[in-house]
């Protein structure tokens, strides 16, 4: 009976090992994706906390929140970030809104927020900002799995762009 079973283990391993390896690598890929999303959430949150408080209440020149955000994200993302996101694909944008109603109008009424007329590119006297980060996730199984986009958005009140913080005449809060 033992002579008939010779090679059975080899056949079972040859059939089962590829399936097992696919499961293991899929699990690792899922863990890396989860880690990548956690890093991007953490980096964006820390960057927004620092960026939204930039400037002063009586500044005459507007603060460049977008450049400050990009700088702080690169500092906050950590060492592993360059392995998880394709560097050329990272896109960071900041959209500004005068008030909450404009923000709601743009988010509910438009599929692409870039086409909304209430959305502004300049931060001067814009109380609400939506920070957006988009990147292509760099898969471990690069040749097997397709690339896909990861998007993160965070809304914040710009501390020194609100009219309540403006002191003195000529602060720009006409309405």
Would you write up a description of this structure?
There is one protein chain. The protein is α+β, with helices and mostly antiparallel strands and 175 residues long. The chain has one domain (8-165). It is 40% helix and 14% strand. The protein is built from four helices and three strands; from the N terminus they run H-H-H-E-H-E-E. A three-stranded antiparallel sheet has the order 1-2-3. Helix 1 packs across helix 2 (65-76). The chain is elongated, with a radius of gyration of 24 Å. The relative contact order is 0.16.
How far is the N terminus from the C terminus? Answer: 93 Å
* Category by helix and strand content: alpha+beta
Integer tally of domains: 1
Roughly how many Å is the radius of gyration? 24 Å
Average pLDDT taken over every residue: 79
Write out key terms for the chains shown.
175 residues, 3-stranded antiparallel beta sheet, alpha+beta
Précis, in short:
Residues 7-41 form the TadE-like domain. With 175 residues, this protein is of the alpha+beta class.
Reconstruct the topology from this structure.
Blueprint: H1 8-51, H2 65-76, H3 81-84, E1 91-97, H4 100-109, E2 128-136, E3 149-157
Antiparallel strand pairs: 1-2, 2-3
Helix pairs in contact: 1-2
